[in-house]
Amino acid sequence: MKQDEILTEKYKATTKEIRSDIAHFLEIKEKSTLAIALSLATDEKIRSFILKKKIPQGYYADLIHQYKANTLYQNIWIQIIDRDGISLYRSWTKAKGDDLSGSRAEISKMEKQHKASVAISVGSYDMSIKAMVPLFDHERFIGFIEIISHFNSIAKTFEKEEIDSVVLADKKYAKHLTHPFTKMFVDGYYIANLDAKKSLVKLLSDNKIETFFNKEYRIVDGYLIVAYPLKDTNEKTIGHYLAFKKLSNIESKDLQFFQFRWIVFTLLFFMAIAGVVNIVMYYNMRKQKKYYKNIIDSSSNMIIINNKKNIIDTNKVFFKYFSKYKSLDEFRDENTCVCNFFVDEEGYLSKGTVAYNWLEKVIDHPDEHYKVKMIIEEKIYYFLVNAAVIDREQNHYSVIFADITKEERYKEELEDITIRDSLTGLYNRRFYETQIDEEIYNAKRYEHALSVIMLDIDFFKKVNDEHGHSVGDEVLIYYANLVKESLREADKVCRVGGEEFVIILPYTTKDDAVKIAEKLRVLVEKSKKILPITMSFGVTEYIKGESEDFLYKRADEALYEAKNSGRNRVVVR
Questions:
Q1: Active-site residue 439, yes or no?
Q2: Is the pTM of this model over 0.90?
Q3: In what order do the strands lie in the sheet with 189-191?
């Protein structure tokens, strides 16, 4: 593979990795910010302060100092807002008393729903991550506490990976930012992270900023630049996280590994070809047949000679894998082809519908790298396969199977770690975002139905509060897997939040998805294992042309309606 092609592939892989990391770091920051808000909401003094509408200005000063000294939260802000949307307290300024009801969508939502939430939003001071938790006095809603964190800790985490950051709020919010915290703007876009490098700000000002938002990545002034959209509670893009990685870092480090990988594959390929050439040479030398046999027996790879009808000969390594057979004749009594052991799985060579289809494919495309997955005596093996004609008149072929089982298992383990939820073992949000894009593409291309079910456990906070988090974890693990085991193999269950899950249902209409959701609802309600619980379900079907974000939003709205209208029910949108 040429170096420029390797670089393009590596740039795409790096872009995907950076976008995934941004999403992951944002999720962690959002969850930890909400955790702080939840813990501070237990303070009984705050309730009396709100009722009196008077909060001491320095009430949280020591706490904020402790966060700054002992955590990555260097600029955490705390705000107390009453039930009418009036700001009673801000830790970062003495300003208070202003009505925030109409200024931010999430505040209006809190006033109506009284539900803990976390979101990215733009206020009069900054674009930041805001977690809000309602406060009650004897079940009467009296206001809420808001914890505001910034993007600087995420930027510092990226710095360790030699990636710089510039976080931008959309220019339409410029007038709304009446007291900008960083005081930094570029072409009307507010810069939300304090440590944005001046050289990168200048780079942005020298280029049309919008062009960075609409491409997978851009390369400018020696940087790979990746944009990630920042969205509010309504899934509306309100800004972008721009990540800058020097090309020299990618080329000098990552490229070396990437080139090494291709060198290894190339060496394996040519070693296999060289082996085939040797076999061809010695096979044609009939008088030296014994010498040929010694050569193939000395190979560490499994080698088979066949004529598209039967296996003619093998080397000793063949019986290392097929150890139950004492001789080739014994193997041939039960099998006409080694392909009987192939596993038909995406990414691997399949047996084909006609005898020895797979062999013709390998021979006709010598430049391709073919892999097979085989189950031999209840063990799974992976092989790199190469083949060549050694006697065209008699249709004799030599096939080399190079064992790559360790490499494939290691690769699978690495991939599994990145896409699995550590608690339940289900797929995680990262997998969902990748898989739903693929399923939408397939649904559009092949014009088949695709549906999504969003579900979560009703009153799960009560489970944790009354029985403890360990019991809560047991509930999550048991019921998550109960749902998984009740679905088809093609259906994918992903944990996308604390007690929230999404099921991807390919080839499934909305009507069928409703039946599945109802079946799951009844199954969960009747189970009563560990603790009796119920679940609420939101169902929707993909509409051709809509984005993944909009599909997710419609499912989320259906789930919200199910929760808001009594729980333990299925709502379809």
A1: no
A2: no
A3: 185-186, 189-191, 163-169, 237-246, 223-231, 218-220
Residue 325 is encoded by which pair of tokens? Answer: 């057979």
Q: Are 318 and 341 in contact, with CB atoms under 8 Å apart?
A: no
Residue 529, CA distances (Å) to 444, 471, 479, 524, 533 in order: 40, 11, 9, 9, 9
The contacts of residue 455 (CB under 8 Å, 6+ apart) are: 483, 500, 501, 502, 503, 517, 520, 535, 536, 537, 538, 559
- Three-class DSSP labels, 17-59: HHHHHHHHHHHHHHHHHHHHHHHHCCCHHHHHHHHHCCCCCCC
Q: What's the CA gap between 124 and 102, in Å, rounded?
A: 12
Q: Are 81 and 88 in contact (CB under 8 A)?
A: yes
Residue 276 gets which letter from DSSP? H
490, 480 contact by CB (below 8 A): no
Mean model confidence pLDDT for the chain = 86
Please tell me the number of Cα atoms within 13 Å of 388 on its side-chain side. Answer: 17
* Bridge partners for 94 per DSSP: none
499, 525, 541, 557: which one is catalytic?
499
- C-beta separation of 93 from 217 below 8 A: no
Residue 146's CB: how many other CB atoms inside 10 A?
26
Q: Which two tokens stand for residue 214?
A: 């609409």
Residues with Cβ within 8 Å of residue 482, at least 6 apart in sequence: 523, 524, 527, 529
Distance CA(289)–CA(428), nearest Å, equals 57
* Residues 6+ positions from 23 with CB-CB distance below 8 Å: 228, 429, 430, 433
CA distances from 572 to 163, 274, 414, 453, 557 (A): 43, 61, 37, 9, 9
From 36-45, 191-200, 325-334, 337-346, the region with the lowest mean pLDDT: 36-45
Pairwise pLDDT comparison (44 vs 77), residue with the higher score: 77
How many C-beta atoms lie closer than 10 Å to residue 122's C-beta?
A: 24
Q: What is the pLDDT at residue 282?
A: 42
Work out the pLDDT band at 353, boundaries 50, 70, 90: low
Residue 90 has which token pair?
A: 């801000």
